[in-house]
Specification:
Helices cover 42% and strands 29% of the residues. The chain contains four helices and four strands. It has a four-stranded antiparallel β-sheet with strand order 2-3-1-4. The relative contact order is 0.24.
Amino acid sequence: MPFVVHCIDRLDAEGLRQETRAIHLEYMIRHRAVILFGGPLLAADESRTIGSLMVLDLADGAAVDAFLAGEPYTRAGLFGEVRIEKLRQMVPESRPGLLEDELGREREARRKTT
């Protein structure tokens, strides 16, 4: 199941990201099989990195917690806030016709309520 991991850096930890980046990248390489996508979050003016976003394909919340427990930015204390949410992937479609099926269900539900 996909999980979105949204991490915001502590305001006082700017140098910590750079100090930890190489071992963070090594960790990402070792775990790339479970990372659907991810990358740094940028300030609106793109002048600095303000956090990280990862979408992980893991079995459950416990597996996400274990992944994060070993993740170097987490271990270094870089993040001031971490949010984890389950994701139901719609786009790109995980199977052909998924969006059309969803649209049909939505239209049927609307017909029943009107």
